[in-house]
Amino acid sequence: MSAGTLRKWLQSASKKTGTIAPPVSAATAALDGPASAWTPAQRLMALQQSYALDDMARASWCREHGVFEHQLVQWHQAFCTPAVPASREASGAFRELQRQHDQLQRELRRKEKALAEVAALLVLQKNFQALLEGADK
Fold first, then answer.
1. What pTM did the predictor assign?
2. Dihedral-angle region of residue 32 (phi above 0 means left; psi in -120 to 50 means alpha; beta otherwise)
């Protein structure tokens, strides 16, 4: 039975009785759908429900919900291991990118200066030729 059906039933029942039913979130809804598509909240709920069970009961619970025991182990490890700060790797990569950026900026400034110098020399050469042609006449 899908979670949407349960929500509609709760809403229609609350309209008939005049009471306000608390909203049912997707995390507290039944653990339906493929386990690989579960949200982290649903995975945490599955871990909570299956944590205290013995091996036989856990295997039965897994069959009921379409979960493999190795998935529970992976989810448990994912929740229990702290997030590895990738700041060291990221900072090293950032420093490398910053160094390359600075190098490219220096090269660009050097080439812009060279281009400006060439443009100035061309203008001077053109003016000098115009002066020589004017002096020859």
1. 0.41
2. beta
